[in-house]
Amino acid sequence: MYEKDGEKYFVVDGHTHFWDASPENWVEGQEEYAKGWIECFHAYQGLGPQDTHWPIDRFQKYSEELMMHDLFEAGHVDVAIFQPTNLRQWYRNGFNTTEADGALAEKHPGKFLVNTYFDPREGDAGMKAFEERVKRYHCKGVKLYTAEWLGDSRGWSLKDPEASRYLEKCEELGVRNVHVHKGPTIWPLDKDAFDVSDVDYVATNFQGLNFIVEHVGLPRIEDFCFMATQERNVYAGLAVVVGGLMHARPKFFAKVMGELMFWLGEDKLIFGADYAIWEPKWQVEGFVDWTMPADDDLSDFPPLTVAQKKKILGLNAARLYDIEVPEELKLEAPKVVEPVGVPNP
C-alpha cells in the first residue's frame, strides 16, 4: 500500500519475475544468445533513474531476500503477479519458470499470484504439462511469448490452429487472463513476432478470456490502441510504459498515457513494474506524482485523477484476478441520484 497526501493506493504489480540468467545456467553452445538476452535486458534498466541501476552480476541472478525487499518492503506492492519466461533453448533450467516462481510464492503466502505459460509447438505433451501446472499452482493467468525460439522455429502466432486448442483449454480450466508479450524486442528475438494483429484475431474468437497486451505493442502504439478499442476484452499492460518511458522519455510517456486513456479508458490499464528490469518504488511514487504536462502538443489529454490512478495501480488487476482489496483502499461507490418525482422502491 502506498499513501500520499492522505490518499491510499492498493498496489498490484501485474508483471514481475524471479529469473536466473547466470553463466552457470547457460546452455552449452547457446552462450551467445543467453548472454546477449540478459545484456539487452540490462540495457533497458538504464532507462530508469541512475541510482536504481544494478551491476550486471546482480542483474543476472538476484536473491529472494532482495526481491522481497524491493517489492514489499520498499516498493509499496501489496500483491505481485509472476509472468514466466521459459527460454529453455538458452537457459538449462529455464530463465524465469513457473516452478521457480511457484516455489517462492508458496514460501510467502498471499504475496504472489503465479501465472504459467503454454507453447502450442509442444503439442499433446505440452497440453498435459500445462494442465498439471495450472492445477498445481492454481493459475488464473498465462504469459505467452510468441517470439520464443524452439528448435528451428523462431516464434508462433495466436492464429495457429494449435494455439486455439490451448485457449479452449484455458476456458475449460478457468484460466481467464492471457498476458501476451507484444512490445520492444529483445535480442536476438524477431521484431515481427511482436505484432499485435494475432491478438485482434483471438480476442474476437475467445470473448470469455481477457487479453492483456504487455508493453502495449510499443513502438506500434497506434496499432494497439485502434485494435484494443474495438475489442472489449483487450487490456493494456503498462510494464515498460512506466518503467521505460516515465523517467527517460517523459514527453513520449505523456503521449502514450494520453492515447491509452483516450482509446481504452481508466478501467483497462494494468500497472506492472517489470522487476527486476525496474524496481517498483520509483515507478509507484513517480506515477502518483505525475500529471499530464501543460503542453500544446498534449492538449487533447486531460490530467489523470486520483481515482483513475488508483484503478491503474491496483484495482483493475484486483478485479481481473479476484484479489480481495481492504475496504479502506476501495473506491467509494458513485452516489445514486434519484430522478425528481420518482419514489424509492
Automatic annotation (TrEMBL):
InterPro entries membership: Amidohydro-rel, Metal_Hydrolase
The UniProt entry, under Pfam families, shows: Amidohydro_2
GO MF terms here are: hydrolase activity
Q: Which residues form the Amidohydrolase-related domain?
A: 12-323
Q: Which keywords describe this protein according to UniProt?
A: Hydrolase
Keyword field contains Nucleotide-binding: no
- Identify the PANTHER family for this entry: BLR3681 PROTEIN (PTHR42889:SF1)
Q: What is this protein called?
A: TIM-barrel fold metal-dependent hydrolase
Q: What is the lineage of its organism?
A: Bacteria, Bacillati, Actinomycetota, Actinomycetes, Pseudonocardiales
